[in-house]
Amino acid sequence: MTTDKPISSGELKEGNSAPDFSFRSGNQTMKLSDFKARKVVLYFYPRDFTTGCSTEASEFTRDYDKFRRSDIEIIGVSPDGEESHEKFKDKMNIPYYLAPDVDNSISKKYGTYGLKKFMGKEYMGVNRTTFLINGNGIIIRIFNKVKPMGHSLEVLEAFGIKK
């Protein structure tokens, strides 16, 4: 899909610098900027262990070797804490990083925290969104309102990687 107008998520648009943030994974504290010179798939999802989030995580796990061979790292972000992420990683055999965002500070920086609707009710939460970041820390693609099924292949294709 090509467009003359940059796609955005909140205030961020394709072509903007990806906001830096830090997160804990296992026993280490990391920052997005630690991955400079590598491409990154930064995906925001609502909650560990839910059907859609499990589908999305499973697909990224299935295709992880394809991403790694192309020097692309994956970081999943949700409002769940470290303990939940560790259990989710163990259950789903997730080989990539999951960043806890319990105060929604990361999702607010990326404009993915906002109003949601489900079964006629409105509430605030994380909207499923994926950012593709190049080796210079620039957002090169934004996927809004992501459908979990098939999303990993869609991301591979966006990076020009054969399925």
Please summarize what this structure is.
The protein has about 160 residues and is of the alpha+beta class.
Structure commentary:
The chain is α+β, with helices and mostly antiparallel strands. It has a single domain, classed as Glutaredoxin. The protein is 26% helix and 31% strand. The chain contains five helices and eleven strands, in the order E-E-E-E-E-H-H-E-H-E-H-E-E-E-E-H. Strands 7-6-5-10-11 form a five-stranded mixed sheet. A two-stranded antiparallel ribbon has the order 1-2. The protein has a two-stranded antiparallel ribbon with strand order 3-4. A hairpin with a 5-residue loop joins strand 10 (129-133) and strand 11 (139-143). The protein is globular. Mean pLDDT is 90; it is low at 1-6.
Layout of SSEs?
Elements: E1 8-9, E2 12-13, E3 22-25, E4 28-31, E5 39-44, H1 51-62, H2 64-69, E6 72-78, H3 82-92, E7 97-100, H4 105-109, E8 113-118, E9 121-126, E10 129-133, E11 139-143, H5 151-158
